[in-house]
Amino acid sequence: IEKRHYLYQTLGNIYHIKKEYESSITNYKKAIELRPSYARPYIRLAETYVLLGDSQKGIEYYLSAVDLFHENEFYSEVIEYASRILALNPKNIDAHKYLQYSLFSMQNYKDALSVGLSLYNLSQEDQQEVLDPQSILLTGMSAYHCKDYELSISFISSAIQNEDLSKDDAWIGISYLSAICYIEGDENSGKEFEKLANDSGRN
Fold first, then answer.
1. CA end-to-end span of the chain
2. Which of 53, 67, 89, 136 sits at 20 to 30 Å (Cα–Cα) from 183?
């Protein structure tokens, strides 16, 4: 049966309503086994584990669902379930990163900047947590859209000097700013960013 995974999910839902949680978990896992690219059983598993008091497992399954939503560019769903993760653990780095990317992609630059700054603060609190340059770049771009230019310069400069930032990401970031400058009529700045993009080493 092509949609057998959905039948297992339905069984899981029925057992969940009956408060037979172990049976619901078994059926949700079977649905995932049959179709691992389908996000809903991960969510139901997460909700069940949280209900049973196992927040850590709940977060793990929420993250699996968020990753699938992220891959398919379902940004509203990413925002919803990443926010659920942060309600359980406000210091979850992965949830912050997914949330930042989705907010930026939906042009909610104010909230994307807020999440980016939270990420930065978390990395400062935990010296073992190294913030990846793509998150730094997104924070800089968000700051630019919020017209906080000093903050934008600080984060973008930090990102493009980071050896872990790929040449493609650096080129995309700088070219992005160049295009924005041209659109806003700042031709001089646009040319400066364009030169930086050409000098960034992208083949």
1. 49
2. 136
The model's pLDDT over 104-137, given as tens digits with 9 standing for 90+, comes to 999 999 999 999 999 999 888 876 556 788 888 8
HSE toward the beta carbon, residue 200, CA cutoff 13 A: 25
**Whole-model pTM?**
0.83
What are 21-58's pLDDT values in tens digits? Answer: 999 999 999 999 999 999 999 999 999 999 999 999 99
Asked if residue 19 lies in contact with residue 32, where contact means CB atoms within 8 angstroms, the answer is no
Q: What is the 3-state secondary structure (H, E, C) of 131-157?
A: CCHHHHHHHHHHHHHCCCHHHHHHHHH
Instruction: Identify whether the C-beta of residue 193 lies closer than 8 Å to the C-beta of residue 178.
Output: yes
CA of 74: how far to CAs of 113, 117, 195, in Å? 20, 23, 35
